[in-house]
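ESCALATION

Customer reports they have been waiting on this structure for their group meeting. Please prioritize. Original submission:
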Amino acid sequence: MRLPNMARTLRRFSQPLTFITEVISTKDFKPDFAVTRKSIEGVISSLPDEAINKDSLDWSLEYFTVHVQPQYADLLGVYLEYKGKIFKSINRKDYSDYGYVRYVFEEVKDSEVIGIGRLTQ
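Update from on-call: job pushed to the front of the queue and completed.
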């Protein structure tokens, strides 16, 4: 039986999303931050019940899923700027046989990101 390829549906409903990568290195014994932004087409949706671990969920934070094409399967731990907030990918499920990869994103509190000033500028 042939698996359904959802890539076409994903492209139809996708929107440009700004992903942010923060690299911390040392320069003259001081931390140096390099921030890169990359726009990738993806679909944002609510978090499904099976992806929620209710025992470890921080109810004060916002969660959602992002579906992207399989060539963007390296976004785990990457930040996302969405609606004026910063989110971090905390979980990845590979559905590349169906034409997509799903990430779970969690809202990041300002203190969790060292270079937050650089991220939001």
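Sent to customer with the following note: The domain at 7-119 is CATH 2.40.10.270 (Thrombin, subunit H).
Escalation resolved.
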